[in-house]
Write a structure and sequence with these properties.
Radius of gyration: 27 Å
């Protein structure tokens, strides 16, 4: 068997294969909408008693075309691989950074206002604050996952899903994914406030900020 030029190594991402056809025939709504006849009419637009007789006139090439039925693009790329294994990488990164924070000692507690930009620990000084920095993995993972989903989702699905509700949902998810950046910055501000003006109120404010950051990071 000789494959067409460009298909020697693997099928292109938008070419339909048996997985797509199996998914197509397992979804009654897609079957009703997707199977068309040579005259351009839908098979299920025919009278119920005439559909069996119309089967020889089905335009299978058009009905099973990849751009019409494909939902997942088989991308041979790093993002394609990440889309299938992103939970594994997130778990590895979570454990790795948590272990690094636990095995390193606490820095001397000095207000950031008394330190230069180079001297400030990037993930904070106290243990709880440095553990809170693990939540910053959420926006990083979310950005990579969104890019991977964008590459592996077919144009057919993107076209059907692109509406006002989809845009609003995407905006809400984006805000939730980016929220840990804001809550962590607020935690750092609370730490500086407690170091410069120590009080029970400042300590309570810091604990509340840490709790909010934990909830937001877990939700993301």
């Amino acid at each position: 068997k000789v494959l067409l030029r460009g298909f020697e190594r693997f099928l292109l991402p938008d070419v339909a294969n048996y997985d797509d056809w199996n998914e197509f025939f397992c979804d009654p709504s897609q079957v009703v909408e997707g199977i068309i006849l040579w005259n351009g009419q839908g098979l299920f637009d025919q009278d119920h008693g005439a559909r069996y007789a119309a089967l020889p006139h089905v335009h299978w090439r058009a009905s099973l075309k990849g751009s019409q039925i494909k939902t997942h693009r088989e991308c041979h790329s790093m993002l394609g691989m990440f889309a299938s294994t992103h939970r594994v990488w997130f778990l590895h990164a979570l454990l790795f950074f948590t272990a690094i924070i636990l095995v390193t000692g606490d820095a001397e507690l000095v207000a950031s206002t008394h330190l230069s930009v180079v001297q400030r620990p990037s993930m904070g000084q106290a243990l709880l604050v440095r553990l809170a920095a693990v939540g910053l993995l959420v926006p990083i993972h979310a950005m990579l996952w969104a890019l991977a989903r964008l590459e592996t989702t077919s144009n057919n699905i993107l076209t059907r899903a692109c509406n006002l509700l989809f845009c609003l949902q995407s905006a809400c998810w984006g805000i939730l994914w980016l929220a840990p950046l804001g809550t962590f910055a607020y935690v750092r501000m609370c730490v500086d406030h407690e170091l410069t003006e120590p009080s029970e109120a400042a300590k309570l404010k810091l604990h509340i900020a840490l709790g909010v950051h934990l909830v937001v990071s877990a939700a993301g």
